[in-house]
Design a protein that fits this description.
Layout: H1 6-17, H2 23-30, H3 34-46, E1 66-74, H4 79-90, E2 95-100, E3 107-113, H5 116-125, E4 133-140
Antiparallel strand pairs: 1-3, 1-4, 2-3
């Protein structure tokens, strides 16, 4: 495991803000020589702290106008039921996140679709048809004042 000292934390913060910044610019921002900065970034990558780089998408520009979090309860708590549910959800393009959680529900989904009508179709024709699903509770996102997902 790599040591996360103050400099590594600054490197991670800078890369989280802009993963495409050049090594020269990153080194300047965190107060290192370019070679020392590159060594640290490579070690963060090798150790798995940095898992990859990706583009941050503007979902609105892509036609997504409706976002909801959905708490899903299963009727059966067996491993087979969970695996069947996870397989089904992995094939649903509307689901951009699926988390197995603790509490009164088994899963928390993030669903992104065009509009409310599209969500109703997903709710009824995808979630509503899965035999493992016992309960569905929807939380409609009205705004996201802080969203640091990449």
């Amino acid at each position: 495991m790599v040591k996360l000292d103050a400099i590594n934390e600054r490197i991670l913060r800078e890369l989280t803000t802009d993963g495409r910044t050049s090594n020269l610019e990153l080194a300047e921002r965190v107060g290192l020589s370019p070679s020392a900065c590159l060594r640290r970034v490579q070690e963060l990558e090798r150790s798995g702290v940095i898992k990859g780089y990706r583009a941050v998408l503007d979902r609105g520009a892509m036609g997504v106008g409706f976002v909801a979090y959905i708490a899903v309860g299963l009727s059966d708590h067996s491993k087979a039921s969970q695996e069947a549910f996870e397989r089904s959800i992995s094939r649903a393009p509307e689901v951009v996140e699926c988390h197995n959680i603790t509490g009164t529900m088994e899963y928390l989904l993030r669903v992104e679709v065009l509009d409310l009508a599209s969500y109703k179709i997903f709710h009824t024709e995808v979630l509503g048809t899965l035999p493992q699903v016992n309960s569905i509770t929807s939380y409609v996102v009205m705004g996201s004042p802080k969203d640091e997902r990449a």
